[in-house]
Amino acid sequence: MDFEPPFQENYKTLLQNGSDELGDRNGGRQPPPQLIEHCELPLIDLSHLQTRGSSVGRADCKGDIVEAARKWGFFQVVNHEVPTEILESVKHEQKKLFRLPFQKKAELCFLNLSSSSSPTKSYRWGNPQATCLKQLPWSEAFHLPLASISRMKGNDNFGVAMETYGMTVADLAALIAEILAEGLGIKGTSYFKENCTSSTCFLRMNRYPPCPHASQVFGLMPHTDTNLLTVLCQDKVGGLQLMEGERWVNLNPNPNALLVNIGDLFEAWSNGMYKSVKHRVMASQEEERFSMAFFYCPFNHTLIESPLKPALYRSFSFEEYIAQVRRDVQATGDKVGLSRFLTQ
Ligand SMILES: O=C(O)CCC(=O)C(=O)O
Ligand SMILES: [Fe+2]
What is the best residue among 227, 230, 262 to mutate for testing ligand 1's pocket, by most ligand atoms within 8 Å of CB? Predict the structure, then answer.
């Protein structure tokens, strides 16, 4: 299987030395948090938002979104107007891409997304900085700025499928952002339209290979998302968990729904009303899993400042936040996140 990244060879020493099980699967020394086996997140039918629907139905639907964002930080949406053909086509292209030989995926200029002037690789796997198994994600990913996807068009079906998907999901994210703003009492804001365009957003395609060390490593380590909103499309395999209070909750995958979650920037903009919730992906011994995350982001220079006062966080730009996260990850292996920006 020449498409498989060489996890075993590359991380041989870590795998040999790291006999420690994840144990509590929490990566810490605290007592193991309770795990709820399965949880159904709020499932919101967005067809109620259509203008031909009743105004009561629309208001209820918006209310459900706002409540879910406050309580869970996560919710699922159906009838979201991302056409099934587009979803099927990106899933197909995603699978095809990950089935290419590993050497090909690892080439620096693969997909023409990186160059010597902009050497950030779009393909990532494992974690070259990992010093223990808990820091080794058993997954591979393509990180694609929508701006560069549009430059790839004409390449083949891949670019077209990704761009169409990206643009459609960007509209969905903008709609949800406006509903969430309304839920804070802020009507008709132009903040999102002015600061987020389809070219400020990113797609991250994830593949989680079957993992012979599933009790020792994560598919993806616990984290919060460093953006405004994430829209996730996942298959039926499952493995995504979120933190609710002190416990990890296993999410039942619903491949017919898109999963939406609040990122750090929206938590700050909402003055802490909406929650950017920690989540992680468990590795599976038997099954491979695919997911695709759309990250709704502003321009780098965009100022994140809550319209609600008194402000819980000092204002900061998106690039300032990213730089701080990077510094913290380098120094401690983990991001500190929003607490760095508390006003007191
Ligand atoms: O694969 C998943 O279910 C989650 C992916 C994720 O959390 C991310 O890419 O930030
Ligand atoms: Fe995430």
Answer: 230
